[in-house]
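tl;dr need the bound structure. longer version: we got a ligand (magnesium ion) that a collaborator sent over and nobodys looked at where it sits. i said id run it. heres the input, straight from their email, havent touched it
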Amino acid sequence: MKVTRPNQSRSFGLLHITEEIQVLDSQCGLNGTGVVENGSGKEEAVYFSNETLEEVLAQTVIVVPCKDETLEVIRGVVSKIPAPCLVILVSNSERGVDDDQYLQQVEMLKTFGASSGQQILAIHQKDPRAARAFQASGMTELLDSKDGTIRNGKGEGMLLGIAVASAFRDTHRYIGFVDADNFDGDSANEYCKAFAAGFAMCPSPDVEHSMVRLRWASKPKLREDGHYEFVTEGRCSRIVNSWLNKLFTPTESNSFVSTGNAGEHALTIDLALKLRMAAGYAIEPYHFIDLLERGHLAVNRNGVSAQLLDKPVRILQIRTRSPHYHQSGGPEHIRKMWAAGLGAIYHNLAQYETIPGSASGGISQLRQDIHKFAAENGGIQHPTGELPRPRIYPALGDANMAKFRDVMEAGSVPTTLAVVGLGAKGQFGV
Ligand code: GDD
Ligand code: MG
């Protein structure tokens, strides 16, 4: 894989954000560096061989959250995840008596796993044992107060994926997320390779935490006249990125932060256990806020409950080449998604005035501006008159993950954690 070498990054205490890197070519050759033409001049590039990428991928768990996708679409994604990765399907699909979609997913994965040999696990978000495991670990915030199951939501499913993946820390250092609602599995393959190239560019996880966030080349939209328009920034991303840029790069009109809502992202498992995470679709924008707070804003501040980061965190933003074909959400879905993202920014920066050392015009002004934007665009909730306040979950690493694992391991309930591939046997005693 060939990618551009980033020249610039912005630092906010321990948080370092690099400018967007571009995938130039997803074919693998030898490791090395070079110079490439980019249309308007020459650019430095870094090349990664297949061996280098596979070494990282063999240490990577890929979590695929799914809900309403068809078996065909899920299979299309899972089957294109590079073979060295361990895959965890976290399903929140319907489990009707006559139509149990989750069991059908497990059967499909078994067939695929048996023929490919890929390590695959599957777990259902509403599994009672998984809920009991979180209860035992102390992570009770994740549980629905009415029925005690794990709450609905993409972020919640991802947290379950991280908790399961953490049992593989002896052999796996990285965790990545790839949405199931992707009609072109080849792009999922490129996403995983881009994660690996990003990690290969970073210092060892012993020295620094890293996170790789992807921006799709485009989302094709079929217009009424029958033509495809290749939109380069989604409706939600356009809004959330613009406010993150006002926060991080207020004096510039560029789009330094281009991955505010990166559904496809990856990070070291250690970091995934340290981060506080936001509910639902606010999970991705809130990464930036938690890292800014704990890597910079809360440093030297009395009375702040945030636990400081123990080492630097580097965020790499990578633009991939494949267009992203997925089930496009309606206007209400998009509105809820950006409002949740902006709400995560708005509410969680309330105790800070400015970003020290940056040209930030002031956080309270920014919050007022966000509120005004939300009020004008239907992002305010009634009757509070406020932006939505997504639930923020404590870091999983602060819960007792050994107890989580004990409960998951107790007994053998095949539907709790369906082990599908060959090599995954033995984990969780299933
Ligand atoms: N396990 C689980 N549980 N998965 C879920 C849930 C849930 O409650 N809700 C949604 N998902 C899965 C979907 O099945 C899909 O594979 C993926 O999460 C994305 O959900 P969508 O509802 O399709 O979201 P989107 O496509 O509008 O938004 C995606 O892209 C945004 C950036 O444009 C998401 O990845 C967002 O998080 C992201 O910000
Ligand atoms: Mg989608």
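gonna send this back to them w/ a short note. Confidence is low (pLDDT under 50) at residues 421-430.
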